[in-house]
Amino acid sequence: MKIFLTGATGYIGKRLLIQLLEEGHDVVCSVRDKKRFGLKLYTSHLDKIEVLENDFLNESTLKNIPKDIDFAYYLIHSMSSSDGDFLEKEKKSAENFRKTLEKTNVKQVVFLTGIINEDKLSKHLQSRKNVEHALKSEKYALTCLRAGIIVGSGSASFEIIRDLVEKLPIMVAPKWLKTKCQPIGIRNVIQFLTKVLGVEKTYNKNYDIASNDVLTYKEMLMQYAEVRGLKRWIFMVPVMTPRLSSYWLYFITSTTYSLAINLVDSMKVDVIAKPNSLASDLGIHLFSYKEAINMAFDKIKQNDVLSSWYDSFANKFHNRNVWQYLEVPEKGCFKDFRKIKIHNEDAVIDRVFRIGGKTGWYYANFLWKIRGFLDKIFGGVGLRRGRRNNSELEAGDSLDFWRVLYASKEEKRLLLFAEMKVPGEAWLEFHIKDGVLHQKATFRPLGVSGRLYWYSVLPFHGLIFNGMLKKLAEA
């Protein structure tokens, strides 16, 4: 079968794509940015993949979608968007998708959305409901799978829970921790997505998909602590407003502030699945919440986290075309250039590709942590995002408060672009040539504040960059 997959570089899309390829399907992958589509994950199935660049908010980019597709997935989501009009954008995107797919031979569209509390909808869940209506068509069948909180290595919900429990022995938390929800493991989500394909009795229907565990958010935190063998105490206070709750999540976890706002908005509403027989009809064994946590840590321990929500690009990076920064500017910039002779190029580049995340920055890590904390205070991403894989990097990956623009072990080059809050634009590049490791920091200042910023951090460069270079060369 020929399948059209939107959101192929996203958290769900990457995992679903591998499963579809292993089942023998031909997959047309629709992405907003081809440069972020890492082919290394799919080397044994390259003859089954076609990659298209589409933006469903721009109809002119949709003319390349083939007519001979059999099934399609709609996995486009803007929850982390800070745009005030994200409801309208999500609806428009869905309408453009429907109009385009109606011109093809598609039989069924599968839409992954969230469980909806019909009595009280958050702004986020109202948007998901609007999208569901916008996707309905007389030309094809629509199957809507409404998921609870998704638990898996790299998922936003799991990583936030992980941050809270691992870092805070005692939590003073907002009262929405009493809200009830029904989580589901990522493995079950992928099973539902693939098994409903072509099943006619699921056509033009919606199903809530979730585990059998109905838990409050407090119970989810405590059960996570139990699985990890941690003693934790949680005290709830009634005075924490939605804004304060959002700041609480933002500063303690690795989430962005815009995502924290949407999460808090959703977490005030009970989200319980309506009973249905879809799991038994499709032969799916539902994993418990604790089982889902254990499976997530199996992947983390194996350094096999396939996808992470951290790697999603914020709209501001799509809008400004971050790939224009692949060419590091030469004029109008401040530069810090250092080099050192090395003895084993392969060992050193491997060390370079492990930088950041759990490994750290090899030298003066406490200063990097201070910079990350200051970045959080001023609304940046901070250091808590870490990295998806401890030893491999691909273009588009997040790396603490950097974004990977170019990564090639064969060419022995790594280029990072700063996503931290700075009055200008910053690059950090590592390159090995003829037995020499070159390290170059480039900063293009914005106005007087940019120049003052560069001179204020200049004294630290000699300490940090020189120490880091020597540590890298030790390999």
Structural features, described:
By secondary structure, the protein is of the alpha/beta class. 36% of the residues lie in helices and 21% in strands. The protein has helices at residues 11-22, 86-101, 123-135, 156-167, 186-195, 217-228, 242-252, 257-267, 278-282, 289-301, 315-320, 345-352, 365-377, 447-473; strands at residues 2-6, 26-31, 49-53, 71-74, 108-114, 141-147, 150-151, 170-174, 180-181, 184-185, 205-209, 215-216, 233-237, 334-341, 398-399, 402-408, 413-418, 424-433, 436-445. It is globular, with a radius of gyration of 23 Å. Residues 313-320 have low confidence and may be disordered.
Give descriptors for this structure:
475 residues, alpha/beta, 7-stranded parallel β-sheet, 6-stranded antiparallel β-sheet, 14 helices, 36% helix, globular
Can you lay out the helices and strands and say which pair or pack?
Elements: E1 2-6, H1 11-22, E2 26-31, E3 49-53, E4 71-74, H2 86-101, E5 108-114, H3 123-135, E6 141-147, E7 150-151, H4 156-167, E8 170-174, E9 180-181, E10 184-185, H5 186-195, E11 205-209, E12 215-216, H6 217-228, E13 233-237, H7 242-252, H8 257-267, H9 278-282, H10 289-301, H11 315-320, E14 334-341, H12 345-352, H13 365-377, E15 398-399, E16 402-408, E17 413-418, E18 424-433, E19 436-445, H14 447-473
Parallel strand pairs: 1-2, 1-4, 2-3, 4-5, 5-6, 6-11, 7-10, 8-13
Antiparallel strand pairs: 9-12, 14-19, 15-16, 16-17, 17-18, 18-19
